[in-house]
Amino acid sequence: MTVQPTSADRPARTRADTPFRRIVRQFFENPLAVFGLIILVGLTVPSFLAPWVAPQNPYDIGTLDIFDSQLPPLSTSSSGDITYWLGTDGQARDVLSAILYGMRTSLIVAFSAVAGALFIGTAVGLIAAYFGGVVDAILMRTVDIQLSFPAILVALVLLSVLGQGIDKVIIALIVVQWAYFARTARSSAIVERNREYVLAARSLSLGSRRIIFRHMLPNTMPPLIVIATIDLAHAITAEATLSFLGIGVPVTEPSLGMLIANGFEFMMSGEYWISLFPGIALTLIVLGINLVGDHLRDILNPRNAQ
Question: Does a structural domain hold residue 139?
Answer without folding.
Answer: yes
